[in-house]
């Protein structure tokens, strides 16, 4: 009886926390507009400003006082037919086919069945997870194709030759998907008592402010699902989380590696290193796929433009920036450099994995000898907050490990920046005379560092800066959620665990 009473009290406390005013996040409607349309624009800027036509950055950008629009358009490869050239019906069609293939593999391949967390209505949604099998199946096909046709495998040339149009197609898909789930969310009753038995649809606590722009961005419905003809039901949020975008990230890395080989006739250790470690990161996250059910993305956030764009566009296109750069400007690390990058990576991964494993073991069985020594406080909701071990160092010590892991993605690009010049130009003669490292391309052009050296870091190191901001923002959001949920217990916890992410600093 005591256990039942405790369980009811915990549920009541959690429900109360969810109904408390959440307020706007991301700067409200104006911030939502800025993120929704500003970040796609940023990706276009990255695509044009760091290119394989003139350099990274384009030469004119290094002399803004003499900037000429026509010259800049030529340097960045602006489409001959203007804005219409940003998109292609053919590329969009193949992109949709890629999503359909992912949906079919989800349905036909075996997977594990599990239940999500308890919803406000007391029910649990069921999930099928088999993303890692889908990825391995797809990668097996492209490996076979590459072994048969080498770097000229049509998928690789299609992805690099139509990079701009692929970016546009995925942006449009993410916007269309966000709009679809937003409109459809109005069929969810805001009164739980009015729902039919077995109806587990519900609105996200912070997603129905009444402002169209903000709700479209943040997501009105918590777990939107759709039933497709012949294929059955899909949970849109969990499907998009680790499937098409994450695999796209991996495939873009391989496509850029193939492009480097087509361009120079060799593949450098730097691009292989980044592609390999990011593949391992992706596969690891997909093996651990059921763990997403306890993340803020699944339990708290609705599905709107924020997650749609992040999953389908931001991840595959921004996260592969480094291999896209190295495809045009090769960098060799040597064994010592590879070992150094590996050491940084292992350090970050160890912190990330050990911390997460400790928390998971404690949640699963607090009496487990591996975690029985940990100190904790018990909140009024019944939750136990760890205040020793890894989690006594910082409230999100796992974020520190995750951020350290991001550095080896950018460091192999070195002091980034290059210029693409003609082999018979004065600049080429000067570069050779100065002893600069010069790379000859298959088309006769040369790639040199020159005056651009260092300026390319704006593109290749942006990920590290962005990821730090992302993790700090996640920490802030989680802190606000916990403050609503735990009340005075959270204040007590913060006094025991002072640091957010980096012990002694933040």
Automatic annotation (TrEMBL):
It holds the Pfam family ERG4_ERG24. Keywords: Lipid biosynthesis, Lipid metabolism, Membrane, Oxidoreductase, Steroid biosynthesis, Steroid metabolism, Sterol biosynthesis, Sterol metabolism, Transmembrane, Transmembrane helix. InterPro entries: ERG24_DHCR-like, Sterol_reductase_CS. It is a multi-pass membrane protein. One of its GO terms (molecular function) is Delta14-sterol reductase activity. It is found in: Membrane. The chain crosses the membrane at residues 91-109, 130-151, 163-183, 264-283, 303-321, 333-355, 454-472. Its main location: membrane. It comes from the Eukaryota. Belongs to the ERG4/ERG24 family. This is Delta(14)-sterol reductase. It comes from Sporothrix curviconia.
């Amino acid at each position: 009886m005591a256990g039942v009473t405790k369980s009811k009290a915990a549920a009541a406390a959690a429900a109360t926390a969810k109904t408390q005013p959440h307020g706007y996040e991301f700067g409200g409607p104006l911030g939502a507009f800025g993120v929704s349309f500003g970040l796609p624009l940023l990706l276009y800027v990255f695509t044009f400003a760091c290119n394989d036509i003139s350099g990274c950055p384009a030469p004119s950008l290094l002399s803004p006082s003499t900037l000429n629009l026509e010259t800049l358009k030529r340097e960045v490869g602006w489409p001959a037919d203007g804005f219409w050239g940003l998109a292609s019906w053919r590329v969009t069609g193949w992109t949709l086919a890629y999503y359909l293939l992912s949906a079919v593999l989800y349905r036909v391949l075996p997977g594990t069945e599990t239940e999500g967390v308890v919803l406000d209505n007391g029910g649990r949604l069921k999930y099928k997870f088999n993303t890692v099998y889908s990825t391995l199946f797809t990668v097996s096909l492209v490996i076979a194709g590459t072994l048969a046709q080498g770097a000229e495998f049509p998928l690789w040339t299609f992805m690099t030759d139509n990079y701009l149009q692929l970016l546009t197609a995925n942006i449009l898909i993410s916007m269309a998907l966000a709009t679809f789930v937003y409109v459809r969310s109005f069929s969810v009753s805001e009164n739980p008592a009015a729902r039919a038995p077995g109806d587990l649809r519900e609105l996200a606590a912070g997603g129905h402010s009444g402002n169209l722009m903000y709700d479209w961005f943040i997501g009105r419905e918590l777990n939107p699902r759709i039933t497709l003809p012949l294929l059955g039901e899909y949970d849109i949020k969990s499907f998009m989380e680790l499937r098409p975008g994450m695999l796209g990230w991996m495939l873009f890395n391989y496509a850029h590696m193939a492009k480097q080989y087509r361009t120079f006739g060799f593949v450098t250790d730097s691009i292989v290193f980044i592609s390999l470690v990011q593949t391992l990161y992706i596969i690891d996250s997909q093996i651990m796929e059921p763990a997403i059910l306890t993340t803020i993305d699944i339990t708290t956030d609705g599905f709107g433009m924020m997650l749609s764009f992040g999953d389908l566009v931001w991840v595959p296109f921004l996260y592969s920036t480094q291999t896209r750069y190295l495809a045009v400007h090769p960098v060799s690390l040597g064994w010592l450099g590879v070992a150094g990058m590996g050491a940084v990576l292992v350090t970050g991964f160890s912190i990330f994995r050990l911390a997460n494993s400790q928390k998971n073991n404690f949640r699963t069985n607090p009496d487990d000898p591996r975690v029985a020594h940990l100190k904790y406080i018990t909140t009024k909701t019944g939750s136990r907050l760890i205040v020793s071990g890894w989690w006594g160092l910082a409230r999100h010590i796992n974020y520190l490990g995750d951020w350290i892991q991001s550095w080896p993605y950018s460091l192999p690009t070195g002091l980034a920046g290059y210029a693409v010049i003609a082999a018979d130009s004065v600049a080429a003669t000067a570069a050779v005379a100065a002893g600069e490292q010069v790379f000859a391309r298959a088309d006769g052009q040369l790639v040199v560092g020159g005056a651009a050296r260092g300026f390319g870091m704006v593109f290749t190191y942006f990920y590290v800066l962005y990821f730090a901001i992302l993790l700090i923002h996640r920490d802030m959001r989680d802190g606000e959620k916990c403050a609503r949920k735990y009340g005075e217990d959270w204040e007590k916890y913060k006094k025991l665990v002072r640091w957010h992410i980096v012990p002694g600093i933040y």
